[in-house]
Amino acid sequence: MLLVFDDCVLDLDRRELKRAEVAVAIPPKVFDLLAYLACQRERVVSRTDLIDSVWDGRVVSESTLASHINAVRKAVGDDGQQQRVIRTMARKGFRFTATVQVAGAETGTGQLSSDSNWLPDGAVLPPPLADKPSIAVLPFVNLSGDREQDYLADGVVEDIIAALSRYRWLFVVARNSSFTYKNRNIDVKQIGRELGVRYVLEGSWRNAQNHFRVTGQLIEAATGGHLWADRFEGVMGDIFKFQDQMTENVVGAIAPQLEQAEIARARHKATESLDAYDYYLRGMAQLHAGTRDSIRQALPLFQCAQEADPEFASAYAMAGWCYCWRKVNRWMDDPALEYAEGVRLARRAVELGKNDAVALTRGGHTLAHLAGDFHGGIALLDKALLLNPNLAAAWFLGAYLRLWHGETASSMTYFERAMRLSPLDPELYRMQAGMAAAHLFERHYDEATAWAEKAFRELPSFLLVAVVLAACHAFSERVSDAQRAMDHVRKLAPDLRLSNLTDWLPIHNPENLAILVDGLRKAGLPA
Prior knowledge:
Layout: E1 2-5, E2 8-11, E3 16-19, E4 22-23, H1 28-39, H2 47-54, H3 62-75, E5 86-89, E6 93-96, E7 100-103, E8 134-137, E9 141-142, H4 150-164, E10 171-172, H5 175-178, H6 188-195, E11 199-208, E12 211-220, E13 225-235, H7 239-267, H8 276-289, H9 292-308, H10 313-328, H11 335-352, H12 357-371, H13 374-387, H14 392-405, H15 408-421, H16 428-441, H17 445-458, H18 463-475, H19 479-492, H20 501-504, H21 510-523
Parallel strand pairs: 8-10, 8-11, 9-11
Antiparallel strand pairs: 1-2, 1-7, 2-3, 3-4, 5-6, 11-12, 12-13
């Protein structure tokens, strides 16, 4: 459906805006705001209406709303002085005042109506895409031949919907909406349009003689392209334990795939069309890479996300965590200044994101590392896991805090849980490095070496990995390997000494510290 006004054409189906026949780059949330105002043009729309309809009731500051209204005016060639298209009604809200003509874009007739109340018969305005990735989880198809087993498949899907809803960066369509497609053969592109989602998760269920097989497919709704597919098999015992296992497997697999798909989308956007979430995603891509240069590039991207949305808790948290990662690899140029900035950002993230598991996870870990508040950091990560028990980052960063605090066995359990939850995670090398350090402290030198080598293949510049390898080779009397590893340590951190290890890693357990010091002394690290 096309809405034609002034010199603009707003295509609601293709989510495109043209002004004077020229395409206008417009962020998704600004498009949603413009479309809503245009479709509500016969009435004054209050700020509450806008927040409820366009932001799904999320808390939005006056400055954020004002900046989006200004962006809409700029996109259509209006401004706050002329107010030809959008008029501010003092103490009431806003009204779309331009004369609108409507055409059915799909018919290609070009026939317009000048009656601003008129919509083509049967035309339904599709819901706007959320300002974050959105997904519908469809009922799984029961292939077992027993209709009475539908409740098992439906229970798994309901749990998946609930688990995905814990990711605050993800908009998940409610069960009542997605289950309207049960037993209906409808193309996912149509489902995407009707529900206003970018992604659809569909699957099937088969159960025979107490053995089950569940398959799942993650599909990009606009193109029908497959982003991920997998199957899970097992023996069904306790039904609730089984459903929990399936939920963990599916959610743990697709959450990183969704994030990577969104990162790819953000990378292909023109710079002038980026909004807060796009900047955040570009920053995440650099953060996952983990190199010194990529972290340097990530910080200004997270800062842009904060400027675009001053209440975006995760953007502050990730920026703060970049400083934590710089400390872990001895990359800081001005430690005192960078410690202070990292702590400031982490505290702001925790303040804004009291119910945001991602913000609490990165913020808590940063406060433990940079402010020395280990008990407070562990408490914040524990709260993050209560909010989202499927968040792999909360498990592995909580594992690190427990490891440095001396709870080695507990940390290994946490690392294992993180890797089981997210086996294809872009941060897997960080989990592997943690397992390597834990096995070193347990004096399992062969296991520690194996884990460290896996992480080293992904990121050779990770200082912790290089140090663990040097110590393990030395303890195992692999002299030449220890020498090569120590040469690499010196290249990564020329100023690292046995005397300043605790300035670098906050190892609180004296026995664990003694093991590391002994291993590095044997490998040749100077005192």
